[in-house]
Amino acid sequence: DTASKLDGSAVYGIDVKLPGMLHGALAQCPTLGGKLASFDASAAEAMPGVKKVVGTPNGVVVVADHYWQARKALDAVKISWDAGPNAALSTDAVRAKLRSAAKREGRPARSEGDVAAAMKGAAKVVRATYELPMLAHATLEPQCCTADVRPDGADIHAPTQTQTIAQATAAAAAGLKPEQVNIHTTLLGGGFGRRLEVDFIPAAVAASKAVGQPVKVIW
Known about the structure:
By secondary structure, the chain is of the alpha+beta class. It contains seven helices and nine strands.
């Protein structure tokens, strides 16, 4: 596939184009485990190119003729989130929990000698703590999915690393049987295991089902 990647003909998830395709921009709850409480899309729905604003369990998708129209209209949607069980979670809280856990006795996987005695009799003990910040498991290409949902089936074009799980997830979101869903795997703009998750698929399915046309949703 080197030649197609060099001449630009390679198709990644973000490159998919289908006849009659619309574009979706997505807002999601900023905390893991949170969900959508309510939204007011009246201002967004009046903006140029906007076709529909769709609520999902944990987000809002604005569907429009072009992506930038959808993205700008998303800023006009008034959203209220239910932050859920992780509302108070912070880096400091995680750090404190890890430090507390480190003081407890661990489970020995292997024992050689007497570490405690050696520490007590050591002429010099060096202690150091190393910390790294929380990192996003981020792909180079934004998470994206193009869904074409119809009453009798669906076609999902996505840079997924788990086709079977993607098929089952799309089917559940569309209200279809897994065998009614076709998964078209595009090239991955960086996977790194992040695309083992299929959380970028349901919103595209919901958007396409709501408007009755193919929709590409980009995070």
